Automatic annotation (TrEMBL):
SMART domains: OmpH (SM00935). Keywords: Coiled coil, Signal. Residues 47-81 form a coiled coil. This is OmpH family outer membrane protein. The keyword Ligase does not apply. Residues 1-25 form the signal peptide. It holds the Pfam family OmpH. Belongs to the Skp family. InterPro entries: Chaperone_Skp, Skp_dom_sf.
Amino acid sequence: MEKCMKLLFLSGVMFLMTCMTPSIAQKWGYIDTEFILNKHPDYKLVQQELEAYSSQWKKEAQNLEQEVKEMRSALKAEEVLLTEEMYQERLAMIEEKQKQAVAFNNRTFGINGQYYQKQTELMQPLQSKIYEAIDRVSKRNGLAGLFDKAAGLGLIYTDPRHDYSEFVLEELGIENK
């Protein structure tokens, strides 16, 4: 039984060594997409356009909040002059306006909101360009894999010799200054 276990263990070790040998010989590299994006001129344009949309939506949200604030102030000022029924009506209107403001914020800045959708729409063409360049660089350099340093995939140490970010910039026709 003990011999059988040793034989099984040795077979397992041999199998693992056989499987790992090809992966050891493979060439790996890494890039930093954050670095590449910040160097790409289209990224600055995308950021500016996104900021313009964001500013407009923030103003609309602030206007809604301001309306709620003004309605509350008006209600407080007129509170003594209103009947209980009139007070409750105005309070209901304020609550409805508050709900509209919250709904606008969620619809605009929430998960899968307009901001996220616009960001995705604007970034998609740029991401496609970059990933196509990454693909060409990887194939040209015979890489088995390429990690993205910016994505935080657990790279603790990176040897600068294996950083292919500059090659991707070159492939995109961007000069690193």
